[in-house]
């Protein structure tokens, strides 16, 4: 079946511009996660959705970052007034339940964001 | 919160040799420990996981061991092959949605 789909796969933007990253989770998965992967670093948690609500936004680095999820499916991560330090691979993952113990995460291929 | 340390950051082995990657965690309440493999330019994929009620789990050439007392767990790959070359991430969780990842180990298998 179809896996987690992210678009675009690559995005180059100028400093100060806004960007939107999209994630289509696996159908039927109620939980959705955004992670950031910087060079040489691990997977940094950004936000978790259960259905359309985000009970944990604690990983968002600043108020320039926001995310929403609609219809319990597609999610968009928006970065306003991009900075060079925002350059990274943004990974989306989904799982059937919001419990890693019972429901492993399935990742998308990520969006590589480069801010020039 | 949970903190996961992973070592080594890079590892080179000859084809056919074994590779071991180690992780330590800080939260004694963590009970779920997955390992993800990320090949260059691809998505992380779950390769094996272990829950706190067992000490070892095997799947063909891959095994994971867990020492709850010492709060560490390890990934063992035997008879390594070039296709095992990738970045491997360990993670720990209390079983909720929260997964804390290590910084990854880049494994290179030299033919």
Tags for this model:
heterodimer, A: 116 residues, mainly beta, four-stranded antiparallel β-sheet, 11 strands, 49% strand, B: 111 residues, five-stranded antiparallel β-sheet
Measured on Cα atoms, how large is the radius of gyration of chain A? 13 Å
Which protein chains make the most extensive interface, counting residues with beta carbons within 8 Å of the other chain's beta carbons? Answer: A-B, 27 and 27 residues
Q: Which class of secondary structure composition applies to the elements of chain A?
A: mainly beta
Helical segment count of chain B: 0
* Low-pLDDT regions of chain B: none
Roughly what percent helix of chain A?
A: under 10%
Computed structural class of chain B: mainly beta
How would you spell out the order of helices and strands of chain A? EEEEEEEEEEE
Mean pLDDT of chain B: 95
- Please state roughly what percent of the residues of chain A sit in beta strands, choosing from under 5%, 5-15%, 15-25%, 25-35%, 35-45% or over 45%: over 45%
Oligomer state of the chains in this structure: heterodimer
Distance between the termini of chain B: 41 Å
Major beta sheet summary of chain B: 6 strands, mixed
Q: How many separate helices of chain A?
A: 0
- The parts of chain A where pLDDT drops under 50 for at least 5 residues are none
Query: Would you tell me the overall average pLDDT of chain A?
Result: 93
Gyration radius of chain B (Cα, Å) is 13 Å
Range of helix content of chain B:
under 10%
- SSE series of chain B: EEEEEEEEEEE
């Amino acid at each position: 079946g179809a896996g987690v789909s992210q678009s675009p796969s690559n995005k180059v933007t100028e400093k100060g511009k806004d960007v939107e990253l999209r994630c289509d989770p696996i159908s039927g998965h109620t939980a959705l996660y955004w992670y950031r992967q910087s060079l040489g670093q691990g997977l940094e948690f950004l936000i978790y959705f259960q259905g359309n609500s985000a009970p944990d936004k604690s990983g968002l680095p600043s108020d320039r970052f926001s995310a929403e999820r609609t219809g319990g499916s597609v999610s968009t991560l928006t970065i306003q007034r991009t900075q060079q330090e925002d350059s990274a691979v943004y990974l989306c993952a989904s799982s059937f339940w919001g419990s890693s113990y019972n429901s492993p995460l399935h990742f998308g291929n990520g969006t590589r964001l480069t801010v020039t | 919160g949970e903190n996961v340390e992973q070592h080594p950051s890079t590892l080179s082995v000859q084809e056919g040799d074994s590779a071991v990657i180690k992780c330590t965690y800080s939260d004694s309440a963590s009970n779920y420990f997955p390992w993800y493999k990320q090949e260059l330019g691809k998505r992380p994929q779950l390769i094996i996981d272990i829950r706190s009620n067992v000490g070892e789990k095997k799947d063909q050439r891959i095994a994971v061991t867990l020492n709850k007392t010492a709060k560490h767990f390890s990934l063992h790959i035997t008879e390594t092959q070039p296709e095992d070359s990738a970045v491997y991430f360990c993670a720990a969780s209390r079983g909720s949605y929260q997964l804390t990842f290590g910084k990854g180990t880049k494994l290179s298998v030299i033919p």
